[in-house]
């Protein structure tokens, strides 16, 4: 049975947390303040520590600082319990080596989910790569080599199946992990002050997501929502940091990925400002196919040279009208009208929510 140390100075809160964890069941050790928490940690060597931040005498930051310098307890997973949401407070904790946060008030499902996920990930590994960790090697290969290397990445990290519309993270949240889309589709969304949504990016199988906030050590500036049921691999931020700190080639690769995303976003904004909606719809159709239904370039070239008419035809693509609208940056009614025009001109076929590209060449020419 796993042992969890709960350090919380509010008796009612501490008792409630302990009761929920004991029902799970876990063995629970309780401490009423930071100083007592240090003593209990050294006595019991817990598998996980839940610790409040605001406590008299020795606060949560002090507890974490002391434990991270103790060789016997330095790798024990550590989750802060806090009612604070300011970015500066999150940054302090993450810089000290916290693994996660739980914002008060939280329900029993949220608590048990965070505990289970952290225990599955195991203790924090040191950032010294001399140990030649198998999972770090796998992560390095997946980042640099892609293709086959990415397929085996989730053998070393926990993979979770999420339902459609699940949000991997939301704007303003603090990044604690890198996400890898093992299977599925998602969208990157920004929302303006009055609630209008704009899709700034699409995520498909084999993509990493969430690394922008990890690299800048700042809260998320967007939200990632799944477009279908998906399998997502969760990689602790400490593993990515280990590679970035010790392997410049990995840092360079992420810098290139980030630069590419910035360039693509700038291009999208420019087209939003000056392109007609008709051209933006054509661009969106080709982008969705490119991201979610890619075909090998060698096959496309061979089909085209051989005169195969299927070269210009895609697999049926499924996306809601609202998502097409958010991706194009125009009203739903306008996008539906233009899709109807493209169907009448023989460029696409529409069957319910499914759209099939019938002529890539015409669509590509249209968006120029």
Task: Please give a structural write-up.
InterPro entries: CheY-like_superfamily, cNMP-bd_dom, cNMP-bd_dom_sf, HTH_CRP, RmlC-like_jellyroll, Sig_transdc_resp-reg_receiver, WalR-like, WH-like_DNA-bd_sf. Helix 2 packs parallel to helix 3, helix 9 (237-246) packs across helix 10 (248-274) and helix 13 packs across helix 14 (332-344). The longest helix has 27 residues, at 248-274. It contains 15 helices and 16 strands. With 368 residues, the chain is α/β, with parallel strands linked by helices. The strands form 4 sheets. It has a 5-stranded parallel beta sheet with strand order 2-1-3-4-5, sandwiched between helices. Strands 6-13-8-11 form a 4-stranded antiparallel beta sheet. The protein has a 4-stranded antiparallel beta sheet with strand order 7-12-9-10.
Key terms:
Rossmann fold; Arc Repressor Mutant, subunit A; 3 domains; Jelly Rolls; 368 residues; 4-stranded antiparallel β-sheet; alpha/beta
